[in-house]
Amino acid sequence: VARRRFVNHGYSGTSVSAIVRDAGVAQGTFYVYFGSKQALLAELRREVFRDYAQALRKVAEGPGEADERLVSVIVEMVHVVHRNVELERVFRQAESAQDLELTALQGRGKLAQMASALLVEGLGGHSMEVENPLLVAQLLVTLFDNVLFESLAYQRPANVVDTVMASLRLVLRGVGVTEMRLASLLSTVPGRLP
Asked: In Å, what is the CA distance from 93 to each residue of 3, 76, 96, 101?
């Protein structure tokens, strides 16, 4: 109920009273589970990061070379961001809230730990060159968290396919993937994404 309410009315246009009314529960019941509207939104943010983590884990643990799975992770993240784009818009409206900001930092940190495993594997297979895999993974997660949202929500900096292709070129070159391998990897990206 809260997700739908936030998406339809925005953060400032959603009150706890409206949420509990729509949910058919007493206001006191709300406060048993959440200390505030901001705490509820932070829980929704954690839920979205769990969705991202599940998608990342599914692809990252799949078959193929580490660089292939990195490309597949980004393509899968487009679908996950697309599923959550309206709620992501609400998060950004309320992002000045400290709890929500900390939740985003924690969520990105967990995703970065998962993504760094792909970079470490690529180092072992000598297909990638990275000095600090966790730091690079954190940069990648933050980049894609923002750029995919902006592309899906506003078609900026470009449509989602062009944004994914440009981002992957930057990332894959940055981790030392050869030009021939880069062309092969980019050819696996679907020509149509949400």
From this structure: 14, 25, 8, 11
Question: 144-163, pLDDT tens digit by residue?
Answer: 888 999 999 999 989 999 99
User: For the whole prediction, is pTM greater than 0.70?
Assistant: yes
C-alpha dist (Å) from residue 113 to 22, 102, 141, 184: 38, 17, 10, 27
Measured distance CA(76)–CA(194) in Å, rounded:
11
Neighbouring CB atoms inside 10 A of 70's CB total 26
Whole-angstrom distance, CA of residue 181 vs CA of residue 143 = 22
Residue by residue, DSSP assigns 44-106 as HHHHHHHHHHHHHHHHHTSSS-HHHHHHHHHHHHHHHHHHHHHHHHHHHHTTTSHHHHHHHHH
